[in-house]
Amino acid sequence: MTYRKLLAAALLAATPLAALHAAPPAYITAAVADTTRPADDVALDAERKPAEMLAFAGVKPGMTVVDIVPGGGYFTRLFADVVGPNGKVVDYVPDEMINGSKDPAKALDRLTSLAKIKPNIMPVHDKLLDPAPPAQSDVAWTSQNYHDLHNIPGADLVGFNKQIFINLKPGGVYIVLDHAAAAGSGLRDTNTLHRIDPAVVKQEVTAAGFVFVGESKVLANPADDHTLKVFDPTLRHRTDQFIYKFRKPK
Asked: Which segments of 100-212 does DSSP mark as H helices, in order?
């Protein structure tokens, strides 16, 4: 056994079991328990494990969180509760995704309506590579939509990730949660199965200057063989998902 393995084993042995499975902070459990959350959101909690996700991301009161392509606002509501009145949630959707949707007016209304949830939510839409304000945010987050950014014609995801890098404060984190595609498949399945090879995400994000600092396996599903579309009724809400954490160096 190497010195590094011996040291790791010693540290593990010295760590109380409770510390390895610490409960999420009270401000996270309170957000998940918020009785004003829509019933449809609550029904997804068993599959999406929001308390574990928020704790992994390190979202805290007073932070600014950028929710990239927030969809219906499942995580937006949780972020807004956690960061509280002294924090802010920026819901961002690229103009290319809004204008390329079947009903752009409806897509824009869906985004702007999220501001009605809480006063600390700010919807933003602009071009994918528009310059980002520097050092404004603590956490950037995208859930089940990184692959869709690749479906924008001509999208430069390394360039987009560089804009996120600019916007984050030194030490800020970038979380990418998405449906896993087969290893080695690259971008083949982003528009067909709505999946992405995790290795592509890691390469693109680190190429923008981020450091990969860890992953969570809490949404992994070994029974998913990565061959079905994520909307397939036999698999929906139970896909094999990866959650990567990247950090902007201080």
From this structure: 104-112, 146-149, 157-167, 198-207
